[in-house]
Automatic annotation (TrEMBL):
InterPro entries: 3-oxoacid_CoA-transf_A, CoA_trans_fam_I, CoA_transf_BS, NagB/RpiA_transferase-like. Pfam families: CoA_trans. PANTHER family: ACETATE COA-TRANSFERASE SUBUNIT ALPHA, KETOACID-COENZYME A TRANSFERASE. This is CoA transferase subunit A. It comes from Phytohabitans maris. The keyword Transferase applies. Belongs to the 3-oxoacid CoA-transferase subunit A family. Keywords: Transferase.
Amino acid sequence: MTSTKLRASVTESLAAVLRDGGTLAVGGFGLCGNPFGLIEAVRDLGVRGLTVVSNNMGVDGKGLGLLIENGQVVKVVASYVGENREFARRYLDGRLEVEFAPQGTLAERLRAGGAGIPAFYTRTGVGTVVAEGKPHAEFDGRTYVLERAIVADVALVRAHLADAEGNLAYRRTARNFNPLVATAGRTTFAEVDRVSGGYLDPESVGTPGIFVDHVVLAPARPPEIEQLTVRRRPEVQHVDA
């Protein structure tokens, strides 16, 4: 099996396609399914003026929060940002532009971008600030708002398994925004836990390799947990014999 998309490092490839002022789409939900190594590569690259499209912006010191803290992001397109204090500070100081999108709308904007659909109508957001300034139309007696698709210069995704042709399989909850983001990038980088010795079973493929340009192994690290919630151990009742 000839290796065509596996890379020992993506630093040079990333530097060739992500420039100052570029648009970066990133998979993940909270810290689940984040391409941590690729995000750190963007940080180390030092590109500035980025527009980042992601469901959320990580947390302070982790995930996309690193790019916020490093001053590399000027605009965020997201559906939720409530776990990042530095994000809030920069937004309130006027140093960061924010475009909020309902979660389903954001997902569809990414999917549409990958499918070559420039825009679509949806009822979500009609009558709210989300729809202000956007074209409206009536279909079957109901009002819809026009939403533009998203195509990013670079997409970063995290998958569990890949083969040399870039076919990706995801593991459980990490299959969140990653398949959508993978299709929406002009150049897509995938960070994976494992590389298969042969081609993946087509039935297990979550993202076909045609959408993926570069595959790199994820750096080994403990799992990141955004909110650790555990059940309290019940009191043990001692019974005298």
